[in-house]
Specification:
Helix content: 40-55%
Largest sheet: none
Order of helices and strands: HHHHHHHHHHHH
Number of strands: 0
Distance between the termini: 59 Å
Strand content: under 5%
Amino acid sequence: MVFGDLAPRVAALIRARPLLIARLIVAPREAVHAIAAFLHLAPDAAGPDAEVATIINDTDPRELLNAALPACPARLYRALDRAGDRVRERRFYEKLAAVCSGPFADRLLDGALDDIRVAHFEALSRMDPALGAIRSALPENTYLVEGIDSLVAFLRARGALRDGDLRLPPGAGLPAITRRLRAALSRIEAPDPGFNPPPPFRLLRTSDE
């Protein structure tokens, strides 16, 4: 695996403890990502090179991962095998920590750990809680989900979204969400323009019209 922006630090660790190279050569992909997360995020990684090299050489990679991302589920370690052949930048592991410590951890860890999916679930975790409740019906499309979140915020601000609007039956998908949001949108009336439109035009007061 390629260590990316951690390459200079890893080289320094190997110089401080040459035996470390033997461990890195045979380490599986998930172990290398665990080491990278440790070097990026763990407080102990700020120590002297010889000390840090000894920690990495003598510690189970799962423990290194836990030191870097303490709130994450144990299954994250195995899932890192799907994070690619290159060590990632610090921000990637920070996003991973944010998602895996929240309600979307299981869904993220069921698939590939790539930039698109991690960014999608990180964005979802910052959105209206109602979207979290219907996450199984939402596609993994950040652009679309952000649009739904904006519409939900607008409907809430106008008092048009009712408590049960986004309580979906099992198996419901995006069409059900669309129908319910359209129904909520139709409850909002356009403001009175202060004049009557001339024929053949007429004033439309709701989106249903």
